Amino acid sequence: MTLLESDQISVELAGRSVLSQVSLALHPGEVLGLIGPNGAGKTTFLRACVGLLPLSAGTVRFAERPVETWDRTFLARDLAYLPQAAEVHWPLPVRDVVALGRLPHQTGWGRDPEGEAAVAEAMQLGDVENLAGRIATELSGGERARVMLARALAGRPKMLLADEPVAGLDPYHRLEMMECLTVLAGRGMGVAVVLHDLTLAGRFCDRVALFNQGRLVAEGDPRTEMTAARLAEIYRVEALTGEQGDRFFVVPWRRLDGGRSESAEGGKAR
Predict the structure, then answer these.
(1) Are strands 190-194 and 31-35 parallel, antiparallel or unpaired?
(2) pTM exceeds 0.85, yes or no
(3) Is 246 helix (H, G, I), strand (E, B) or coil?
(4) 4-222 maps to which CATH number?
(5) ABC transporter domain spans which residues (predicted)?
(6) Fewer CB within 10 Å, N side or C side of the chain?
């Protein structure tokens, strides 16, 4: 089953092509990692998928309907977008900020037990229960990132598009964030996440989509697509790859002047 699908989409900004003929299907119950160098088109792809950027060609469908035909409120109930470095502009308690994620579901001003349960669950998933009474604008960057994730989850969407949600988090909370996304996928949610941390992408993603220069250049299992040779070509780094138990991992090891080296052809960690 396909939940969100782009069909040959292209985006132009100020007359310049920034995304070109990208076709990609996003499924429920999986974590899809969007990886690639800076400026490769990952954020543009997410923003185009939720209708925040106009398409110069192609179509995006959610639940088999073109995104532009959806009522925005109804679309927001099922499709959540967490932008990169999402800011908190409201000097409100954290719990109230998380509860804003329920606005697309709001039909009146009476008590909403289901909404209250969803907010409580989202705060638990985002590990922000201990911040419930804190003023959101006074939080650290990492704390704000977790609050904004909880806000996105409060709506109980069918799909979450998250742009670098681990940026600014310490190692513990980076792992916690990715474990949270894995739990959500295990419950049937579709998750697409932009990552610059190749180690996390290899470790947690069911599939990866590799972007470069506005194009989708590879898509599939991290083990087959995140090869040392491909990472050398795209990122200009030598990477070590290996297995720990049943988990695949990638460790960027050193920069490459020319983008490839003989040692990158093997690249297996010993």
Answers:
(1) parallel
(2) yes
(3) coil
(4) 3.40.50.300
(5) 4-238
(6) C
